[in-house]
């Protein structure tokens, strides 16, 4: 059916403040979320093409033994310092003004995909978490077992999630408090001194056979009196980076995905390659660049160390200012970035 003949509506959390003037909410076409104004439905034929085609970097990938370094220590959990700590893939502990956030927790193996690198300490020791920031509901970002583990050892934790993610969270952990937001909306659960906004991303949703784009996806901006932090979630390159910068101004810290980008015919609309991530960071007028979404799981065709090598080349060439490549478990203190 042609898009113009499908029922179109706009939805948002009417209880939350929308910061973009005149924005009616996320566009829903025929019952599914649009990627901005247009539907994006990943084609199964591209998956088949990928599986049947030979990776031109196959031998290079087999020889590439890169894995991120791990600092085996969780003392940062008891620190009062404002910081971020990478825990692998898109999982970060972020502490701002004494409030501790955990992004897209994934501690364990994925179905049929082994985790390539460990955590700095057992998942049960990851405590004192105030909020989960859930960018979208793909299995490598919204993981049942990791959320259950987190909640069982952090009974105070609340989830800040996209529109329509609440049904999934209720099935995972019925007692986990959550709040849903649409793009350009400000959550109202956080204490004074830290503001959290759900912002656009160029991506999609699917967990089962019949739920394509039934749950929203997005990114986060965390704001204090002296810090703007951007967590990109999963995203392709699109115009939302400029729009976010126009609303908030330059970002002090940008946490950017840089992996799972090959083959480009399948990945380009929903993931950034390192060059695109740096371009987006520059559009955000970013300060510190922290990469993520690489090295932890084998999700695509590029060699595991390629994203890091490309970023280092871009930094050496002056195209990327502020690159930081922390080990898993290595605290990055915000006071050291000022």
Tell me what you see in this structure.
The protein has 338 residues and is of the alpha/beta class. It has a single domain (3-336), classed as 4-Layer Sandwich (Metallo-beta-lactamase, Chain A), CATH 3.60.15.10. The protein is 20% helix and 20% strand. The strands form three sheets. A seven-stranded mixed sheet has the order 2-11-12-13-14-15-16, with helices on one face. The termini are far apart. The model has no long low-confidence stretch (mean pLDDT 95).
Salient structural properties:
338 residues, alpha/beta, Metallo-beta-lactamase, Chain A, 7-stranded mixed β-sheet, 8 helices, RibonucZ/Hydroxyglut_hydro
State the end-to-end CA separation. Answer: 53 Å
Oligomer: single chain
Mean pLDDT over the residues: 95
Q: How many helices does DSSP assign? A: 8
Number of domains: 1
- In CATH, the topology is named Metallo-beta-lactamase, Chain A
Please tell me how large the radius of gyration is.
19 Å
Structural class: alpha/beta
Tell me what portion of residues adopts beta-strand conformation: 15-25%
- Count of distinct strands: 17
CATH superfamily name? Answer: Ribonuclease Z/Hydroxyacylglutathione hydrolase-like
The biggest sheet amounts to:
7 strands, mixed
- SSE string, helices as H and strands as E: EEEEHHEEEEHEHEEEEEHEHHEHE
Give the strand order, joined by hyphens, for the main sheet.
Answer: 2-11-12-13-14-15-16
Helicity range: 10-25%
Protein name: MBL fold metallo-hydrolase
Domain Metallo-beta-lactamase: 102-294
InterPro entries: Metallo-B-lactamas, RibonucZ/Hydroxyglut_hydro
